[in-house]
Design a protein that fits this description.
This protein is of the alpha/beta class. 35% of the residues lie in helices and 22% in strands. The strands form nine sheets. The protein has a seven-stranded parallel beta sheet, with helices on both faces. Helix 8 crosses helix 10 and helix 11 packs across helix 12. It is globular, with a radius of gyration of 31 Å. The two termini are 48 Å apart.
Length: 822
């Protein structure tokens, strides 16, 4: 009886697709296996087998699977369960989850290639070809199967498609699909001796053999020296790259030694990841407060699967994490530690490797496809105890024996993916993943999210509090700088009060470091004409362009479009365009003038784009190679700098006045978190200066007092009064189209359909703050659902409504998607 496989395709399509399993492939087509299947014409895609059975689909003849790619599954059963949960909960397709979860190296696709026809070339036909067609035919005969793009590049012709079509019609060429394998294992060359390096006579004989060549003598001398540096008991060998670097010679010289049978060049597969150094077996010593907190966490895990550790900044949460991870590893299990920013993996990795050595695994999006693929396969093929440190995408890894999940800085909005789908929250996904493995989850933060603290305070989560800094340090003193008053006194220079500059100078002169926090990158948030007030905007988005000085250009921070800086105003044609406001680039420039002789680093998206950008900045600032760090919210997220005793919040008002119900929460969190970077060692008291034009604002006053409880109590009452989480669940529906009238019309119709089902729980449609991005006009509908309502039923209704609307031909051009728990 024929077998049929239900296959997930990495496309934004709901459900699975049925394929016939050829008899010869039956043993290798199982759940979790990859298969290459035809989809959408001649293209081949990597699909993932969800299930196999003997039920034939009705009314269709399934296509057969083209290739079975695996002998063993590449996805474990708990991963598949997590994928389905993400698809159901976040109202996206299983194909979108598959595409996000699996490393690109595991997703083989095909490309169309042109090759000689199977029956070969009929010379009687080629005799009648013109010169142009014959030359292309000869090129394909020489190069073999090639893409039209490659043929155009080599031949420098722009009529490839037309010529190929003519030759196909003459049965001289054919078109086929070629699969693309994206992952290659890394190979490295090592040089080994073919003589006894411990025997003086053998060494002398080897040098005699190269006595006529100075280069070969130098190379052999370098090799012998490196071989003798190997640890006793290790194989005498040296990396070819290291040999060439130390000797300053070439591969040809090594090959010459190999030709004389003096050395052997061994080319073998190696890992892309190596741990340099030896772990220190000692666990960090805990204070009495930490010991008490650790005991409370263990006790909480008996009655709660999820526990919140609410600890003030610099209380030593990482030391507790290390003890908990050690407990899990000694039980033979694995641990996952999520961090909100890649920058945090740098410092955490160093601290954890000192204890756990090569059992520490790092995983994040800055790694190449090959690196992520290697980590995936290593975890898939083994179940040894390890701890993974990574950003939100780490939840997709193939854990075998997950025993503990730690979500550090659980309040951070970076855990929520905005685009593309799945629009999931890494924290919540990690909690579900832990539950599927029967593991415990610890959420850690000095400023927990309102929803998390509400669940902890009402008993749904366990709650452990650590209210004193490690080493007896005190929380930094916070001083408010009233910019209105300072401006009236004439005591401001640019964006800084003179008092701020003077206090920062005192700190620097005392040999300490200062952080300047401003949550806006670029040099200036906009350019504006002084005469007619014209503001250059993006052609594709409804936003003003940000001015960047290095390189000098105007940039859209939504679509990435780049524009030259106009010499004259495009509106009034006068040379009156000036820059308005401050970004981190401009603040860095100004600070250099205020504090000559002090080195400055800047940490924002522009300075951390490459793989090692974070690490280089963090390492340099930690090593006191710079005195000042200017940064966006990246500098607020759990970084530990021992020399920092002062933090300056450049513009607190920009954090507070944002049209979003979480604005106050995010503002308080950022100010409290960045304040926590100051005075972490306790030897010098920390200070925080907050510049604001609203010194009496409740959020600022609560930040001054480090009063999280007071802030929470006020915020929870407002959320309850206006029906926001945690008292309701939010689902935002986004509708996009290239025409403003069309998107408004369909958004209004969509909202009316929703109101017929959900009544006054539906709000909108409204124009978001940025109502056009990448040439698409946007409308948003908000759905508020009571927490005791059946969210599963709500989502089933939304899915069905989406399917019905998609049947309308006029709606097929709309982009519609849901954002759950925004």
């Amino acid at each position: 009886m024929p077998a049929y496989a239900q296959v997930i395709i990495p496309k934004p399509l709901d459900g699975t697709f049925t394929y016939l399993v050829p008899d010869e492939m039956a043993p290798m087509v199982r759940p979790g296996h990859r298969v290459l299947v035809p989809f959408g014409g001649r293209r081949l895609y990597t699909g993932l087998v969800e299930s196999v059975d003997n039920r034939a689909p009705q009314g269709v003849a399934p296509k057969p699977i083209a290739v079975s790619l695996d002998r063993n599954p590449v996805v474990r059963h708990p991963q598949m369960k997590l994928w389905k949960w993400l698809s159901d909960y976040y109202l996206c397709s299983i194909g979108e989850v598959f595409n996000a979860a699996l490393p690109a190296g595991l997703k083989i696709e095909s490309e169309t290639v042109i090759e000689i026809a199977a029956d070969g070339i009929d010379e009687t036909v080629t005799a009648s070809l013109d010169t142009s067609d014959f030359e292309l035919l000869e090129l394909i005969r020489q190069k073999g199967a090639s893409t039209s793009k490659d043929l155009a590049r080599i031949s420098k012709r722009n009529d490839i498609e037309a010529t190929v079509n003519r030759l196909i019609a003459l049965d001289l060429l054919k078109v086929s699909e070629r699969s693309l394998e994206r992952f290659g294992r890394r190979r490295k060359a090592f040089v080994k001796p073919l003589f006894d390096i411990k025997d003086p006579a053998s060494v002398q004989t080897a040098f005699t053999a190269v006595s006529r060549s100075d280069r070969q003598q130098t190379m052999l001398l370098t090799l012998v020296s490196m071989w003798r540096e190997c640890q006793p008991g290790d194989i005498a060998e040296a990396s070819l790259d290291d040999v060439l670097q130390r000797s300053a010679l070439t591969r040809q010289t090594v090959k010459a030694l190999a030709d004389k049978a003096l050395v052997e060049i061994d080319l073998r597969y190696v890992s892309r990841f190596t741990f340099q150094g030896k772990p220190d077996a000692a666990l960090p010593e805990l204070s009495k407060a930490q010991q008490s907190a650790l005991a409370e966490i263990h006790q909480s895990f008996f009655s709660h699967d999820i526990t919140l550790l609410h600890g003030v900044t610099s209380c030593g949460k990482t030391e507790l994490y290390i003890h908990l991870i050690d407990h899990v590893l000694r039980d033979g299990n694995q641990a996952l530690m999520l961090v909100p920013e890649i920058a945090l993996t740098t410092q955490l990795t160093v601290r954890l490797q000192k204890v756990f050595g090569d059992r520490v695994i790092i995983y994040h999006s800055k790694f190449s496809d090959a690196e992520r693929m290697e980590i995936w396969m290593n975890m898939l093929n083994g179940n040894s105890p390890c701890v993974v440190i990574g950003a939100r995408s780490s939840v997709f890894l193939p854990f075998a024996r997950l025993g503990l999940v730690i979500v550090d800085e659980e309040h951070e909005t970076s855990y929520k993916q905005s685009d593309p789908a799945p629009r999931y929250n890494g924290r919540d996904a990690a909690i579900v993943l832990a539950g599927m493995h029967g593991a415990k989850t610890l959420l850690g933060s000095a400023t927990p999210s309102i929803e998390t603290y509400y669940k902890a305070s009402t008993g749904k989560f366990g709650l452990v509090t650590l209210s004193e800094r490690y080493g007896g340090g005190t929380l930094p003193a916070v001083e408010i700088i009233d910019l209105n008053r300072e401006f009236q006194r004439g005591a401001t220079t640019g964006t800084f009060a003179d008092h701020t500059v003077a206090e920062a100078r005192k700190t620097l002169n005392a040999g300490n470091q200062v952080i300047f926090f401003h949550n806006r990158r670029g040099y200036s948030p906009m350019a504006r004409c002084r005469l007619c007030a014209f503001i250059p905007k993006c052609d594709h988005c409804d936003v003003s362009l940000t001015y960047h000085r290095s390189p000098e250009q105007l940039v859209c921070h939504y679509c990435g479009a780049v524009y030259p800086v106009p010499g004259v105003c495009p509106s009034c044609h006068e040379p009156a365009v000036s820059i308005i406001g401050y970004g981190t680039e401009r603040i860095e420039d100004n600070i250099a003038g205020y504090f000559p002789g002090h080195s400055i680093l800047r940490m924002d998206l522009d300075t951390t784009r490459n793989k090692n950008g974070y690490q280089n900045i963090i390492d340099s600032f930690s090593a006191r190679k710079a005195d000042i760090l200017v940064g966006t919210q990246m500098v607020t997220k759990g970084l530990d700098f021992g020399g920092v005793t002062m933090v300056v919040v450049v513009n607190a008002d920009a954090l507070i006045h944002f049209p979003e119900f979480r604005a106050a929460e995010r503002a308080f969190n950022m100010m409290e978190q960045v304040a926590g970077r100051a005075g972490r060692r306790g030897d010098v008291p920390g200070r925080v200066l907050i510049q604001t034009r609203e010194p009496s604002h409740p959020v600022i006053q609560q930040a001054v007092r480090h009063d999280y409880t007071g802030f929470y109590n006020q915020e929870i009452e407002e959320r309850k009064a206006y029906l926001y989480p945690p008292f309701v669940r939010l689902i935002n529906i986004y509708i996009k189209h290239r025409d403003a009238a069309t998107v408004q019309q369909h958004a209004t119709a969509y909202a009316e359909k929703l109101r017929a089902l959900f009544g006054n729980r539906v709000h909108g449609p409204i124009e978001p703050k940025v109502s056009r991005v990448k040439s698409l006009y946007i409308r948003r509908i908000m759905l508020k659902i009571e927490t005791d309502a059946s969210i599963r039923q709500v989502k089933q209704i939304l899915r069905q409504l989406y399917i019905e609307i998609r049947k309308d031909d006029l709606c097929k051009q709309l982009a519609i998607y849901y954002d759950v728990d925004p």
